[in-house]
């Protein structure tokens, strides 16, 4: 699946959040959106799943304008993993099957496998999970419908270095089996280790895009951006 924004403008409360943003994420690749807080990284993800509507420009999924797609169908194809995923009441199984009671047992167990969690986790109370376990359950919840792309909003921000590295490796393995991945980050080490391509956003606009090492070097050369 190819995900694209073409000349997207987005306003919120009369303020420009995205300004003439053009970004493309290739199928089976990891694209990292780098930039300071408030740069518009999360807004790009929200536009891709129609949680926000641009005021100008187009958002495309495999060349189709997302406005022509059923929102629920779109969100089954493009999963979003939030920065601080909320665990719903009950056990892990309840979290995976919430609002999706037609899921088969095979689908539930396959999603758990993809998130590299033991099957015994299905009966674990969600409230008792560690931060790293919650992150994996959130990934399993996004995977349970068999998406073609996954969007991660600062997936390692609240984790210690060991758990962050494990989640980064999981994301890399998901891309290796064909999922298109878009990750927001302000951690340059994560971007360089994980991404195939990086895009630097500052004040809602694309400043540079290309090889992660080159984009990170430009970011680090401008202290005012951080």
UniProtKB/TrEMBL annotation:
Family annotation (Pfam families): ABC_tran
Domain ABC transporter: 3-224
The organism of origin for this protein: Capillimicrobium parvum
Domain of life per record: Bacteria
Keyword line: ATP-binding, Nucleotide-binding, Translocase, Transport
Matches recorded under InterPro entries: AAA+_ATPase (IPR003593), ABC_transporter-like_ATP-bd (IPR003439), ABC_transporter-like_CS (IPR017871), P-loop_NTPase (IPR027417)
GO terms, molecular function: ATP binding; ATP hydrolysis activity
Name of the protein: Arginine transport ATP-binding protein ArtM
Key word ATP-binding present: yes
